[in-house]
Design brief:
Elements lengths: L5 H4 L21 H7 L4 E8 L2 E8 L2 E6 L11 H11 L6 E7 L14 E6 L6 E5 L5 E5 L1 H14 L10 H47 L1
Antiparallel strand pairs: 1-2, 2-3, 4-5, 5-6, 6-7
């Protein structure tokens, strides 16, 4: 667990931190029309998706991605858009190996809160996977085989194989049992080693006296 740098385990090297500036001239779809089209929109943000200005917002339980030039709704992303987004975020040069949409029962490496999401696997060292939100187009996770191995070892380390919470009952009782076993082992070692040694020393002394007495 300590061989690899933790930032590498987190997959930070798998993605590019794009600092694309928003060009206000590209926002040609009026905010007023957006409000008319989505009257219950909340938390509206103007951002950049790959290379275009977009509106991101919530309405009810759903999240939306809308082109800030045409007003076209881009979400949920189709497979082609998901691949473009994943390639935009990905820092490697490997080709796309597999693409799938995950709407329920996510793998252990993806939070349920990120659903629905596209998983794009790449042919590259460590079998990297890029997860893109199907609703917002944002990068929601990045994983590779070394993260998966680390995650398995960490779950074994904290003895929690579901939530990986170090404050779990199994680890607590196992730790308590280990402490008690160490204490009882120390006490037992005292009686076995030091008491027996003292007893053997006494027996040898008595035997020496008896031999000395017989000699006289």
């Amino acid at each position: 667990m300590v061989i690899f740098d933790i930032d590498y385990i987190h997959g930070d090297s798998l993605v590019v931190n794009h600092q694309t500036k928003l060009d206000a001239d590209t926002i040609t779809y009026p905010f007023s029309k957006l409000r008319q089209q989505y009257p219950n929109a909340e938390s509206i943000e103007v951002e950049v998706f790959i290379d275009q200005a977009v509106y991101r917002f919530k309405q009810g339980n759903n999240k939306y991605l809308v082109d800030a030039q045409t007003g076209q709704q881009l979400s949920p992303l189709n497979e082609v858009s998901a691949i473009r987004a994943a390639q935009h975020y990905y820092s490697g040069k490997g080709g796309v190996a597999k693409v799938e949409i995950i709407q329920e029962n996510p793998p252990f490496e993806l939070s349920r809160r990120a659903l629905p999401a596209w998983r794009v696997n790449f042919y590259d060292f460590g079998n990297p996977s890029i997860y893109v939100s199907a609703q917002t187009g944002k990068l929601v996770s990045k994983r590779h085989e070394f993260w998966r191995i680390f995650d398995l070892m960490f779950s074994l380390h904290v003895m929690d194989y579901e939530d990986e919470d170090p404050s779990n009952q199994l680890l607590f009782w196992f730790t308590l049992f280990s402490i008690l076993a160490s204490i009882f082992g120390g006490v037992l070692s005292y009686f076995v080693i030091f008491k027996n040694r003292a007893k053997n020393t006494t027996n040898i002394a008595h035997l020496a006296k008896e031999i000395t007495g017989e000699a006289k």
